[in-house]
Design brief:
This protein is mainly α. It has one domain. 95% of the residues lie in helices and 0% in strands. The protein is built from 1 helix and no strands.
């Protein structure tokens, strides 16, 4: 029971952290796309 609770405690922050990094990754990709598009337009 203790190891199960420990596993749940360890898996939850990792899952939320990965979801958070995925959410933070989306605007970064969007900004890169916009930057490359703007550079292509100005060039």
């Amino acid at each position: 029971m203790t190891s199960l609770a420990l596993h749940a405690f360890l898996s939850h922050p990792v899952q939320s952290l990965s979801e958070l990094s995925m959410l933070a990754f989306v605007p970064v990709i969007g900004a890169l796309l916009v930057a490359t598009f703007a550079a292509d337009r100005t060039a």
